[in-house]
Inverse folding.
């Protein structure tokens, strides 16, 4: 579920859930953990690209969630609130690993001649994303391409385009200026396009 | 790169440096704001004009948008079937950490 989709969520019932969890027994807490742990690991693993680090982040995130349930005000859905905690936890790990430092993405960016004219080959895109995604191989190619991006760019793309945070929220989460987020986002998209060109050109069979 | 491509690029280079035009390189810098609908009207006009005149940028932008849509669709899922299985050990560890905290 995206952050935008979350607007339709029933926040009042989420407040009840949060309140019940605070008073609740171990059995209801475990049910809550089991209902949410898979998407949380999925979210953390996308950010960290490592399963064991993702599981550690989720464990720490749950501790934080249980501790701070009384601060949940229902301004967003419970899931959005939890997602922010997981994302923050995973980003903390990335910071500790010093993986957020900017590294070169130049070889993946478009090139231009001395007159500012585009040098890269282009072609007409024939297939729609829906038809391309009918193939599991294509989905895998997209995941592999994203993982090839340097972390400093991959994270901006994941947070803005996939998790659907706003530019200012991404700037805050990654401790960057908004203009830097925009530059990185465009470069990440342009690099991803180059990596996905063989898919879009139909060179990876469906 | 063929000779005709090279000649075409030279002609494009001259044409796109005329007043009221932008080069492919400048076009590239405007893409994000264009897609976010944040380009001022005057810049949007030169951007649209460049798309009409430059086949390379037209096809590049189409591929850029297609790649973005493909990526969003490939990753935008929290559907149960696509989520990873989680070992019981992790649930147990979470429950123990909750008690300890």
């Amino acid at each position: 579920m995206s952050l935008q989709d979350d607007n339709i969520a029933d926040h009042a019932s989420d407040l009840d859930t949060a309140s019940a969890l605070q008073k609740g027994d171990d059995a209801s807490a475990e049910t809550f953990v089991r209902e949410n742990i898979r998407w949380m690991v999925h979210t953390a693993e996308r950010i960290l690209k490592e399963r064991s680090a993702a599981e550690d982040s989720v464990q720490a995130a749950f501790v934080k969630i249980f501790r701070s349930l009384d601060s949940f005000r229902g301004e967003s859905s419970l899931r959005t609130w939890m997602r922010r905690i997981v994302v923050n936890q995973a980003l903390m790990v990335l910071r500790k690993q010093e993986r957020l430092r900017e590294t070169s993405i130049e070889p993946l960016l478009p090139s231009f001649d001395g007159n500012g004219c585009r040098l890269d080959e282009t072609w007409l895109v024939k297939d729609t994303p829906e038809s391309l995604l009918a193939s599991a191989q294509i989905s895998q190619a997209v995941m592999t391409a994203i993982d090839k991006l340097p972390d400093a760019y991959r994270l901006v793309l994941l947070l803005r385009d996939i998790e659907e945070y706003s530019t200012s929220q991404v700037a805050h989460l990654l401790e960057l200026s908004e203009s830097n987020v925009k530059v990185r986002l465009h470069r990440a998209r342009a690099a991803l396009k180059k990596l996905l060109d063989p898919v879009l050109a139909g060179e990876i069979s469906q | 790169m063929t000779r005709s491509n090279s000649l075409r690029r030279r002609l494009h280079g001259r044409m796109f440096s005329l007043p009221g035009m932008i080069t492919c390189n400048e076009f590239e810098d405007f893409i994000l704001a264009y897609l976010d609908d944040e380009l001022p009207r005057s810049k949007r006009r030169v951007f649209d004009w460049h798309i009409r005149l430059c086949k390379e940028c037209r096809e590049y932008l189409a591929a850029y948008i297609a790649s973005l849509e493909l990526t969003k669709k490939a990753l935008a899922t929290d559907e149960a079937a696509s989520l990873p299985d989680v070992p019981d050990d992790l649930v147990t560890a979470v429950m123990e950490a909750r008690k300890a905290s």
The radius of gyration of chain A is 20 Å. The longest helix of chain A spans residues 26-48. Chain A has two domains: 5-96, 106-200. Chain A touches chain B through 63 residues (CB under 8 Å).
